[in-house]
């Protein structure tokens, strides 16, 4: 890829904790990616629309509220409606292993829990964009 990988980092739902999202956003930026951070309390519609408008390569969702099983499929559904369901979507947060497996079945390419090395997140995104 000749241009920078463009990543949208979003905080869907009512969760007000964004330290992890900001840490990941800074790590991706430091790795040479272009990062757009939507801020707190975004609706799935806001996120899908931003992904479309910004023409991103990857979407990252940070969810600590426990609403990941509702929010992730909704974002994926809206991205499909907008014709951008070819964009990989990853999720970070407190997500039980069983839920992580289910999310992957719905189309999430990776689920990162607390303490995931930033280098692993960076490499996963680079590999997902290459596909």
Please count the helical segments.
5
The coarse overall form would be globular
Strand order of the main beta sheet, please? 2-1-3-4-5
Overall pLDDT: 96
CATH superfamily, by name, is Cobalamin-binding domain
What Rg, in angstroms, do the CA atoms define? 13 Å
Largest sheet: 5 strands, parallel
User: What's the structural domain tally?
Assistant: 1
**Count of distinct strands:** 5
Which CATH class? Alpha Beta
InterPro entries: Acid_CoA_mut_C, Cobalamin-bd, Cobalamin-bd_sf
Keywords: Cobalamin, Cobalt, Isomerase, Metal-binding
Protein name: Methylmalonyl-CoA mutase
Domain B12-binding: 4-131
Descriptive report:
This protein is an alpha/beta fold and 131 residues long. It has a single domain, classed as 3-Layer(aba) Sandwich (Rossmann fold). 46% of the residues lie in helices and 18% in strands. It is built from five helices and five strands, in the order βαβαβαβαβα. It has a five-stranded parallel β-sheet, sandwiched between helices. Helix 1 links the parallel strand 1 (6-10) and strand 2 (34-37). The protein is globular, with a radius of gyration of 13 Å. The protein starts with 5 loop residues before the first strand and ends with a helix.
């Amino acid at each position: 890829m000749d241009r920078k990988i463009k990543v949208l980092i979003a905080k869907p739902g009512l969760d007000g904790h964004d330290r992890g999202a900001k840490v990941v956003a800074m790590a991706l930026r430091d790795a040479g990616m272009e990062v757009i951070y939507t801020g707190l309390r975004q609706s799935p519609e806001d996120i899908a629309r931003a992904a479309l408008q910004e023409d991103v390569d990857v979407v990252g969702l940070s969810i600590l509220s426990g609403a990941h099983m509702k929010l992730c499929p909704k974002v994926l559904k809206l991205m499909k409606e907008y014709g951008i369901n070819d964009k990989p979507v990853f999720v970070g947060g407190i997500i039980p292993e069983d839920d992580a497996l289910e999310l992957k079945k719905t189309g999430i390419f990776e689920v990162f829990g607390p303490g995931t090395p930033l280098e692993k997140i960076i490499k996963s995104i680079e590999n997902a964009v290459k596909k």
